[in-house]
Amino acid sequence: MKCRESLFTGLIGAALFAVAIGFSTDSPASPIDQLTDLTGKVTVIVTLTGRDNFTSEYRYDVSVRNMTADPLIADSLLIVLDKITNLAGEDHEALTNESFLNRFDVLGQDGETDERKPFFRIPPGSTADLVPQTNSRAASVRIRNRDYVSVFTPAFKVYGNKRPPPEPKQPTAQAQPAAPQRQTDKQTERLLQLLLKKGVITEEEWRKANQP
Q1: All structural domains of the chain with their residue ranges
Q2: CB 152 within 8 A of CB 65
Q3: What was the pLDDT predicted at 110?
Q4: Strand order through the sheet with 36-37
Q5: Element containing residue 7 per DSSP (H, E)
Q6: Average pLDDT, the chain
Q7: Domain 31-160, CATH
């Protein structure tokens, strides 16, 4: 009985310690989880900029053209190397069903998706938004072919966020125009009283002059 109580106490202590140090079994969320799949709504521009035959390395500049009607948040844009196809347009080995992407080394990537596909961040430009019908700056992508296949085509997906529209301004109550101040009213009244005392005007005239 004492042994069981000691074991129970030890487990409770271990659990409390794990909570105290912030222990968690959850894996960190991928940056793409907070982004929208923009593939099909933008155009991916892939330009081959270099090739090293000795290492079988290919270098690409990959940029994005905004084909939507809304501005995109420039620093949210990511491109994911989704697949690599051969001349026949296939992206998996026919016999083993292995993805051709596994045969390539991808260099300089900014991270991987949950499916272990490399992604790259689009460098932000001079403005905060990528407005419609404009191209982003290019991300540099380096792909090294282990099998030395001479012809292959990389295909990319694009993730990012649209700029939310500005909130409509709340109508403000129009200020009522201030009533004009009659700064000379008292001076006029004093003058009329003085004229009344001196007999220059009658009481009837004085009353008429003071009527609004």
Answers
A1: 31-160
A2: no
A3: 94
A4: 36-37, 153-160, 78-85, 118-121, 111-112
A5: helix 2-20
A6: 79
A7: 2.60.40.290
